[in-house]
Amino acid sequence: MTEHSENSLLITKVKLCKIENIILESGKQLRDVTIAYETYGTLNEKKNNAVLITHGFSGDAHAAGFHEHEAKPGWWSNMIGHGKAFDTSKYFVICSNVLGGCAGSTGPSSLNPTSNKPYALDFPIITISDMVHCQKKLIDFLKIDKLLAVVGGSMGGMQVLQWAISYPEKICSAIPIATTMKHSPQQIAFNEVGRQAIMADIGWKNGNYYDQSQPDRGLAIARMIGHITYMSDKFMQEKFSRNLKDKDRTFKFTPDFEVEGYLKYRGDTFVKRFDANSYLYITKAMDYFDVSGNNFLPNAKHKDIKFLVMSFSSDWLYPSYQSENIVKQLTLRGYNTTYVEIKSTYGHDSFLVEVKDQTKLIIHFLEKVLKEALS
Fold first, then answer.
1. Quick check: helix, strand or coil at residue 374?
2. In the 8-state DSSP scheme, what is residue 239?
3. Best CA proximity match to 279, nearest among 204, 178, 211
4. What is the β-pairing status of strands 2-3 and 10-12?
5. Is 232 annotated in the active site?
6. pLDDT tens digit string along 12-28?
7. Any catalytic annotation for residue 348?
8. Catalytic one among 55, 348, 349, 350?
9. Active site residue 216
């Protein structure tokens, strides 16, 4: 891993962490688990400058920089690097692909060591807690005793909350962004429609499609549905309005409007990098997630964890009231908590594009946390 210059992005490589055995929340066992991860920056001598980035639903370990011979940067490159929110001249930044994923970590497309064939639906149901358990194994593998911060948006924010619940003694601070303590019925409903679109595709074959092509149309439709929820009405109006792709209507069932063409493009590109069964498993894990009520930070021995909670005004998938509920529970339990709702028109995707405000908040927050960690 190198940097071209102080202002350039990183050239990165995916690394692998092998875990011999894990017991899942369901009680089932997984053997020979692989977790793909990337790191940016340098771990200091005291090993107290490590920041774990947790990705959203369709993300992966490639959070920043470039892979060699690839033109597309990591999904949060605008936030990770020299002089950025997660300054790699100060922090050792880690990001791993979640358990159940399809970008190097063990998931339904991985080979089952028992049959030497892809798991498909023989892969056990997983939870957000299982994902975090694997991340803890990775942190142990890297010989890091305590993380300076765990940070993530959307499903990544769920993992942040789970870290605070499962391993409070292992983190100094937590930054959950645009997330929730549990899915609402509406959020579950959107995920279920996506799952049904995949399973209704004749190419799904009850999950056993790996010797042929995957259910492209079903997966593309699922992604189109999901992508609608990531954008606000105002943003869609500004970006697309009712603009036609061509000068006039075709009077056919083809994408006449720009927004139709955009969604089709998003669906078609998604199927090239994502596994349909992973879509099923990961969305189910999100729907099962519930750390509300008595499940929320029951351990009162680690009140020194500092929280920075952020939401976005136009996010209707994970609306601000859900972040406000997190803040309320943290405040009731006596945690040092900062909450900011950032004004934005981008909708749920704001956490990926609203760089300026997030950077300012995170830099200030992490400087305070690091100062205490070094004292």
1. helix
2. H
3. 204
4. antiparallel
5. no
6. 999 999 999 999 999 99
7. yes
8. 348
9. no
